[in-house]
Amino acid sequence: MSEPVCFNIQKNTFPHPHLEDTMKKPSIVGVLCIDSQGLNLGCCGTLSDEHAGVIFILAWQATKLTCDLTDIPVVCLESDNGNVRGQKHNGITVAVQKMAS
After folding, report:
1. Prediction pTM value
2. How far is CA 99 from CA 1, 14, 22, 33, 72, in A?
3. Which of 14, 56, 67, 77 is the most exposed place for a label (fewest CB within 10 A)?
């Protein structure tokens, strides 16, 4: 299996160390970092620009489900093959895709 390509949009560099570190964990196949505007800050593996908008909106809407400002919801999209989890915190949304083990 080839190494995933990681890209840091803001610095226009390959690779981004935090994305690479996350990708080294078992079963992780994609990671995506999104800014407060819904734009891709960096991605690695199976998650890319095309996923940023959807994940951003889901995580943003999930924050409206609680009145407790200290409660930070995690959105989880599951399938038989694995899941994608996304969370918005301090203006940054992070998503991780994990394959079923």
Report:
1. 0.82
2. 15, 24, 14, 19, 24
3. 67
